[in-house]
Amino acid sequence: MSAKGSSGIATSALHDADVAIVGAGPVGTLLAILLGRQGKRVTLVERWTTAYDRPRAVTYDHEIARILATLGIDSENDPAIEFHDELYFWKNAAGEDIQIVDWQSQSASGWRVRYWFNQPDLEARLSRIVDTLPSVTQIRGFEAVDLEQDADGVDLRLRRNPIEDAQAQGHQLIRAKYVVGSDGAGSFVRETLKIPSHDKGYFFDWLILDMIPHNEMVISPAQWQLCDPSRPTTIVPGGPGRRRWEFMVLPHENAEEIAKEESAWTLLAPWGVTPESAVLERSAVYRFQARWAETWNVGRCVISGDAAHLMPPFAGEGMCAGLRDAFALGWRLNGILEGLYAPAVLDSYTSERKEHAKHYIHFSQELGKIICISDAEAAAERDRLMKADLSLRNNLPLPTDVCQLGAGAWCANTAHAGELSVQGVVESDGKRARFDQVVGTGWILIGLDQDPAVALNSAQLSQLRALGGRTVRVGTPGSSCDVADVEGRYHRWLSAIDASYVLLRPDFYVAATARTAADIRQRFNEVMASIHVRTETPLAA
Ligand SMILES: Cc1cc2nc3c(=O)[nH]c(=O)nc-3n(C[C@H](O)[C@H](O)[C@H](O)COP(=O)(O)OP(=O)(O)OC[C@H]3O[C@@H](n4cnc5c(N)ncnc54)[C@H](O)[C@@H]3O)c2cc1C
């Protein structure tokens, strides 16, 4: 229980909240920050008093680096985060490459494609940020057990977690305007709302081992998969000072037996890792699954993170998808609570995020199909096909994919809309940094070498400002502009798609692009309609 929490309350207590979040994993905690920073009254409920300490995520992508940067976490220069300037190799038992993925380059969104970290460290860090937010109440050691919604709000009933303390009793009732279930794979919120899941019927058990080597352990390649049917193995960094090994549990093996410490050391021995050279920090057997919930919002209740989707970790995207959910929900819930958007904007949360997450579920499952093969003949056939395919593309790595949101709050049929925006380094008032850090986030209309405020009519400008948005003229260094495009990235991007205007959303996604002022005026109105904007100003093209 946090200092601000309610540890002293043993009997029924009533809390009023704008948003009650069930589950203080990375997703629920990020959402609490995004709402709490805007002064919303948030109650964050977590069934455990201590942090979850089993091995899970070790890597995140450029979009998450971009999100974390808004919290002041700089993935490029942070002692708890590392990167490896290397590709991601998939090798067969003979050590030949059968697949190569680009985990090396810079992404168009301004950060490296991949970073490595330790999930409990990141969660603790997010929790510390929550501790600084006066409008967020944390209730730890209680679990949500009942949920009922009506037209005005949701009653969420909690009881003290009997597993933590069998003697203690206590119930609490929260009346919240909205409830978000960030309560993991077995989500109580999802189950109570009777939301069905689409299950891909994909199950593989893997033993996960987090190691702290006594001395620096240089492993080359730094991040790779050994697709050996006799023991499919993942060898990756685990954040600064750590390494991760993952071993597939073979069909004839017993998951409980293999989870024992002595089995871990037996499996690690061929890698030269022994109790003399490293500490086994955490170990666990996980069942990798692939599924998603059919809808993510029902009335005043929403689900996010593992509650909404599960994927095998081969693409390192499960937590990333959940943090994107939190970011996509943050601006919507803040806006609904401020009276800017109608609650219907939550429908686009489901339609956009579900399709995006399904893309990564599919991609992770395809990667899983490569490695989760324990039959020697099937592995030989896989090797033959994949080597031929790799050689056809001259051993070029699979590029970082650009994934579009499902239909929602963006203009279909305009170039790059529904995609994460390109980001470059800009300069303004002597400050040179990435665009997000110089300009900030929110609804932003960029005009390239022209004043975007002139492109909108006065009603639209008022509406943009009512949403806390702004216009930004991006120009060449030395020209009259709000920010200078010091790397030329915005000029290259917009010239490639023949556009002069870009409308950015608060989650960095492109809402619309346009070549002419008339087009951006029309698309601005379409976007405002799609977010069910509630500002009184009448719209006129
Ligand atoms: C082996 C492994 C490796 C992985 N590697 C990666 C990776 O490299 N990169 C990546 O992006 N992802 C990875 N993932 C996925 C990632 O760890 C998860 O997607 C992420 O932790 C999900 O976060 P969450 O907040 O949605 O859920 P969780 O972290 O599961 O948090 C849910 C919280 O809700 C609480 N809770 C549940 N029910 C209740 C209730 N009724 N009342 C109160 N509290 C409740 C739980 O106690 C828990 O704290 C990996 C997963 C595994 C298993």
Per-chain topology:
Elements: E1 14-22, H1 26-36, E2 42-46, E3 59-61, H2 62-69, E4 88-92, E5 97-101, E6 114-116, H3 119-131, E7 136-140, E8 142-149, E9 154-160, E10 171-181, H4 188-192, E11 197-199, E12 204-213, E13 224-227, E14 233-237, E15 243-248, H5 255-258, H6 261-268, E16 278-288, E17 291-293, E18 297-298, E19 301-303, E20 309-310, H7 318-337, H8 345-371, H9 376-392, E21 425-428, E22 431-434, H10 435-439, E23 444-448, H11 452-455, H12 458-466, E24 470-475, E25 483-484, H13 489-496, E26 501-504, E27 510-514, H14 517-530
Parallel strand pairs: 1-2, 1-10, 2-7, 4-13, 10-19, 23-24, 24-25
Antiparallel strand pairs: 3-6, 4-5, 8-9, 9-10, 11-17, 12-15, 12-16, 13-14, 14-15, 17-20, 18-19, 21-22, 23-26, 26-27
Helix pairs in contact: 1-3, 1-7, 7-8
The structure holds flavin-adenine dinucleotide.
Rounded to the nearest angstrom, the distance between the terminal CA atoms is 53 Å
Number of strands: 27
What ligands are attached or bound here? flavin-adenine dinucleotide
Q: Determine the strand fraction and express it as a percent band.
A: 25-35%
What's the number of helices? 14
Mean pLDDT: 93
What would the principal axes of the Cα set say about the shape? globular
Multimeric status of the protein: single chain
Estimate percent helicity: 25-40%
Unreliable spans are: 1-11
Alpha carbon gyration radius: 24 Å
Sheet of most strands: 8 strands, mixed
The computed structural class is alpha/beta
